[in-house]
Automatic annotation (TrEMBL):
UniProt keyword Ribosomal protein, yes or no: yes
InterPro entries, sorted: Ribosomal_bL17, Ribosomal_bL17_CS, Ribosomal_bL17_sf
Domain of life the protein comes from: Bacteria
Record key words, sorted: Ribonucleoprotein, Ribosomal protein
Region annotation Disordered: where it falls in the sequence: 128-173
Protein name in the entry: Large ribosomal subunit protein bL17
Family that this chain belongs to: Belongs to the bacterial ribosomal protein bL17 family.
Top-level taxonomy: Bacteria, Pseudomonadati, Bacteroidota, Bacteroidia, Bacteroidales
Name of the coding gene: rplQ
């Protein structure tokens, strides 16, 4: 029976598994997003999120603890300097797993795992959301035509001001 045996061994020995997760964690910290299988991503999430929580407190002890897991001083520096500053107020859930389909060779379920606050696409989508009412459709059409007229007038004035400057240059030679 498998009672209380939740850990996914990923088909590897303990030393191989620890080395693989440390390397994947370093890659995630450096690149902010990596592509992998779903099983490895779930194991990596359990491995890296406590390290990110530990990085919120920038002490010598916490740096040494994180370094003992990662064994990469550049990744540790990146984690404490850049990532911990950006996720300082977040209470947890630092990573996001998004499934991308199946791998062609062996049909393994693939995904990418990324740090939540470092995804520009999701941040832009959150900023662009604005509320619109039905009444604003007519006024927005009028605003768009007025803006289009203004931009065409500005472009025309730029063309006129650029034309004499180009004609004067050959005369000076």
């Amino acid at each position: 029976m498998r009672h209380n045996k939740k850990f996914n061994h990923l088909g590897r020995t303990a030393s191989h598994r620890h080395a693989m997760l440390a390397n994947m964690a370093c890659s995630l910290i450096k690149h902010k997003r990596i592509t992998t299988t779903v099983a490895k991503a779930k194991a990596l999430r359990k491995y890296v999120e406590p390290l990110i929580t530990k990085s919120k407190e920038d002490t010598t002890h916490s740096r040494r603890v994180v370094f003992s897991y990662l064994q990469d001083k550049y990744a540790v520096t990146e984690l404490f300097k850049e990532i911990s500053v950006k996720i300082g107020d977040r209470p947890g859930g630092y990573t996001r797993i998004i499934k991308t389909g199946h791998r062609l060779g062996d049909a393994a379920e693939m995904c990418f795992i990324e740090l939540v606050d470092f995804d520009e696409n999701m941040a832009k989508a959150a900023v662009k959301k604005t509320t619109r009412t039905r009444r604003s459709k007519k006024s927005s059409a009028a605003v768009e035509t007025k803006a289009a007229e203004e931009t065409s007038a500005v472009e025309a004035s730029e063309e006129v001001s650029a034309a004499p400057a180009q004609e004067e240059a050959p005369k000076a030679e």
